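Hello,

I think I submitted the pyridoxal-5'-phosphate job twice by accident. Can you confirm which output corresponds to this input? Input:
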Amino acid sequence: MSLTTITVKMSQFWSKLVHELVPYTPGEQPQIDGLIKLNTNENPYGPSPKVLAAIAAANSDTLRKYPDPNASHLKQALAADSGLDINQVFVGNSSDEVLAHVFKGLLKQDAPLLFPDLTYSFYPVYCKLFEIDSVQVPLDENFEIDIDAYDQECGGIIFANPNAPTGIALPLSKIRLLARRHPNRVLVIDEAYVDFARESAVSLISEFDNILVTQTFSKSRSLAGLRVGMAYGQAHLIEALERVKNSFHPYALDSLALAGATASLQDNNYFTQCIERINQTRAKTISSLEAIGFNVLPSQANFILARHQTQAASELFTFLRSNKIIVRHFAHPRINNFLRISIGSDDEMQTLVDVLSERCRSTS
Ligand SMILES: *Cc1c(COP(=O)(O)O)cnc(C)c1O
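Support: Only one job matched these inputs. Its output is below.
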């Protein structure tokens, strides 16, 4: 029997909590030759050669030692990069892990956590795991966050900005208003895609003691495999995360990850060039798709959410797959007629458009 066909029955030995968990489903990572993989918002360009050299140098006899539990060099580099103090910076083994500490350390309160009905689907998973009540606040009819809808009793607010899977960014002016309207609650802005966007809420941190911003090396810095994420906020918020982390996994970042992530910050030239290319490809892809009958939401991320005017998304998804192109299709009723398409290289996106043009011409 192959591994994938083994099903495990629920067990009497499980905790009550485990019985109730609904785990996150990551985008698939199939090992198929020649596949065009546009389903998990990975960067089509590899990491900077300097990052690879730093990881190779760290791959040495020194691996016998534990890494620096405070990740001081990396935090210093992030502080310099963001214009903050080192005690306003937190790092973790992926931004998913940083978010786990945020839920546990800052968002678990008596009143329910608020987040959009359409946003990063990990948030409800963490709510179950950490037993946090939540209320999902609908995006408006344009798939935008309506900050007035958040005028309700809550224990905190979290959303991705630019949001996922819409790609739409909420302007800083609105984030400011939201933070002012909830002065006693933490507002968490998940900026996994912010490097592809116009503005970051990190610039609001000196002004607000209740804004925490999370980011990741996975998307814009081409390091999804290295698992490094960070959070920025005033020192009292960061201290909560340090307390949780040091009660769970003090050596969260391994030596190779520390070396690679630190080197990435020292090669911002490479990084900004990749971003520019991806943003250009995004603009080009949007106009090509619009020309063959798609509506595309205005994205500031390295992915787009697109709906064809006549073709069903589920059928396009299967059709693309049979052409060795994988994208993401969500079952959520508000977007089940959309496809989320990561921005790959120019060649990959041209292939996508060619394949779709054929289909959309022949059947519409
Ligand atoms: C990809 C993503 C993350 C997770 O990033 P990792 O650092 O790879 O764990 C967090 N939030 C959002 C919105 C994402 O899209």
